[in-house]
Design brief:
With 221 residues, the chain is of the alpha/beta class. It has eight helices and ten strands. The longest helix is centred in the N-terminal third of the chain and has 17 residues.
Length: 221
């Protein structure tokens, strides 16, 4: 497997698309995307984020189970220099209130329900009982009682953003920029926010793939 030259998430995606755009990237129930199709959706959603005012350094949290929209949101945020705050779907209202407040998240992409979790109720409790402050804007992937815009509407919002502006924003992303924030379990104290850089994510990904002897023909669940 060829080691990537790219050291940022958006450049990595461009590099892989340039190498083999038709190769299957993901399969999620009835959704099947090649690398080229995935990048097209990432760019369309990234434009939507820009239209909402998300820019370099802005923190966008993601609260979803394993679904294709998670990856679209993750790469779209990172591709314009935003920082993806990755949340655990098992988190309590108190934990979410702390993590969203501590990270100073400005926008939360979430699914209203996941398995037996009602995130509408959980987020309401986080705001009403656990001092969620400042309140992020909400961007649900499905209909919810709060959130004026749905995640699937981002491409339409982004039609006002030019390709040139998107690529300009992408060009500002450098290897040492924070790509995402993960929170520790907080078993002995408050959870700690761990900042992960673009270059570190890519190097770690490559190292894991090498140790597991993965190839482009493997499929991971």
């Amino acid at each position: 497997m060829q080691k990537p030259e790219s050291q940022t998430a958006p450049n990595l995606l461009d590099e892989i698309v340039g190498r083999d755009s038709e190769h299957v990237f993901l399969i999620d129930r009835d959704v099947r995307l090649s690398y080229g199709e995935f990048r097209a959706r990432v760019r369309a959603h990234a434009k939507g984020f820009l239209a909402l005012g998300i820019c370099k350094g802005a923190r966008v949290a993601i609260l979803m189970g394993n679904r294709w929209e998670w990856l679209i949101a993750y790469f779209a945020v990172m591709s314009i220099g935003g920082e993806a705050v990755v949340l655990n779907t098992m988190s309590t209202a108190r934990e979410l209130a702390y993590q969203l407040s501590h990270s100073e998240t400005t926008l939360l992409v979430f699914e209203p329900r996941f398995r037996d979790r009602d995130f509408i109720a959980v987020l309401a409790e986080a705001a009403e009982k656990h001092g969620l402050e400042p309140m992020p804007k909400y961007l649900p992937v499905e209909d919810a009682p709060f959130g004026a815009v749905l995640f699937g509407e981002l491409p339409s919002l982004g039609e006002t953003i030019s390709d040139e502006l998107l690529l300009t924003e992408q060009s500002t992303v450098v290897p040492d920029d924070t790509a995402c924030i993960l929170y520790t379990s907080g078993s002995t104290a408050l959870p700690k926010g761990v900042l992960l850089q673009h270059s570190g994510l890519i190097d770690n990904m490559w190292s894991i793939g090498q140790r597991q002897h993965l190839t482009s023909e493997d499929r991971l669940w």
